[in-house]
Amino acid sequence: MAFQGNTGLGTELAITEIKDKINELQNIHKFNIPTVEANNQTIQTEPARRPTQSNTKSNAEVTSTPRYAMIVESIDPRSTCEDILKQVKKDVDPVELGIRVNKIAKLKNQRVVINCDSQQDRHLLKTAIRDTCDRLTVSTPATKNPQLRLVGVINDLDDVKLAKAITSQNRSLIEGLTEDQKAVKVIRRAKGRTREVINVILEVSPQIWNNLKNQKLRIGYQVVSCADQSPLTQCYKCLSFNHKAKDCRNSLCCGYCAEGHDTRECQNRNSVPKCCNCIKAKRNDILHPAYSPECQEWQKWDSIARSSVSCC
């Protein structure tokens, strides 16, 4: 198993969207689980609905939808979120400016977040608020670069050579990008299926992420798969989120069967998996590993982690 990433700033922003995200993800990630025997009782799960081609999306496609957010605050500490919204709507007309706003949410400490459809829309709205609302301040939440995963790379190239291979051997996929947009950085190497190969985790620009995800890349004398990499950090000791094993103070828990042993030493691989995180969260669906992207708890925290990632 390999769990990688950071959450950082954006958690509060993401909480306002988690319910909508989970509802959408639940409709995407339903899957068939056969009837099983557990503690001498028959567990019958509901059959999954087969999604149509038109509404089938991956977890990354749903949670990485671009959000051009801005945070609006008042210099008057007595102002409420309602006061801020009232002033913005009074002084700025999105119809006249042609600004596309897709979401407004209230945050703690008298702050309002406004999401736009594009960077240009956000720029126009920020400029309009600054020019007309002298008692309001506008800021843009900090974002991080997205990540990609190269699967099954022969471990014979150093990090510099790997990064160069991505841009020099796959020119048709990054044609038209500026040098800044071609930024690629190797941030981690993970164990592959065999000793001869590794999985490489990259930090890339949003433009590179959009162009290369789900593509086949030429690396040296190989052709390898390139996939989206979740920025979520998951502890391999307790399987909780937002911390690493070296900083973990929780009890040991197996990511496959939810018992008190190391996941790598699990002797219950022939049995039905159980998710320790969904058990704690008292969810109905617990019959999956805690590290599965099908897990509703994993999806929730993955969405929070992606809230601070720029994928546009």
From TrEMBL:
One of its GO terms (molecular function) is nucleic acid binding. Coiled coil: none annotated. InterPro entries: Znf_CCHC. It comes from the Eukaryota. Residues 234-250 form the CCHC-type domain. Residues 38-62 are annotated as: Disordered. This is CCHC-type domain-containing protein.
